[in-house]
Specification:
This is DUF3828 domain-containing protein. The protein has 6 helices and 4 strands; from the N terminus they run H-H-H-H-H-E-E-E-E-H. By secondary structure, the chain is α+β, with helices and mostly antiparallel strands. The chain has a 4-stranded antiparallel beta sheet. A hairpin with a 3-residue loop joins strand 1 and strand 2. Helix 2 packs antiparallel against helix 3. It is globular. About 20% of the residues are buried. The N terminus is likely disordered.
């Protein structure tokens, strides 16, 4: 049974074909078997789509792009989530967020650019640099410019994202190294918070 369902897991149209086939001409015992098979296929499709929907993206590059496009402000108080950040990174960010009540805290510049000013300009180039079963490094190369000061020179910069797999086998952001080589985790770990 498992082998016969496997190819059907990602094919909801197969379920529709199963349901559209007339079973009224079958004897009652076979009708029940056919209905059980249809229910099993529906359940398998539901489980597979739920598991796939839990991850923001399937590949390290797509995950890195997704985090940047949807949650580039993850480092700001209350913005990050366990859905796309590793437990260690989220734990350190929560400590920094507790400090952000008007005090100078660890994150004093945009960790994507290592700058307080400037804008990431498109196009952005995403490149997988290394990959293993549990970790991957993705480079994000872009131009840093200034919308309010277009006369300022534009500079090409590269930011590196370290991704790791979480308990659900989803790729999540574990660290971010800006163009000046400063790793966000190191900045958060080394900051002298009050009470430490």
């Amino acid at each position: 049974l498992g082998a016969s369902l496997k190819p059907l897991l990602f094919c909801p149209h197969v379920l529709q074909m199963q349901c559209s086939q007339s079973v009224t001409s079958l004897p009652p015992s076979l009708r029940a078997c056919s209905m059980s098979r249809t229910v099993a296929i529906a359940f398998a499709c539901l489980l597979s789509s739920t598991a796939q929907a839990a991850c923001p993206a399937a590949t390290p590059v797509d995950t890195a792009r997704w985090v940047y496009e949807k949650h580039q402000d993850f480092y700001l108080s209350g913005k990050g989530s366990a859905d796309y950040l590793s437990k260690p990174l989220l734990g350190l960010l929560k400590k920094d967020w507790a400090c952000q009540n008007g005090d100078q805290c660890a994150v004093s510049a945009n960790p994507w650019t290592d700058a307080q000013d400037g804008d990431v300009q498109k196009p952005i180039d995403w490149k997988l640099v290394s990959n293993s079963d549990k970790q991957a490094v993705v480079e994000m190369t872009y131009n840093l410019g200034y919308k309010d000061a277009p006369q300022q020179p534009v500079t090409s910069q590269t930011t590196r994202l370290l991704l790791t797999k979480n308990a659900s086998s989803c790729w999540v952001l574990d660290n971010l190294q800006g163009p000046q080589g400063v790793a966000l985790m190191q900045t958060l770990e080394e900051f002298p918070y009050e009470g430490d």
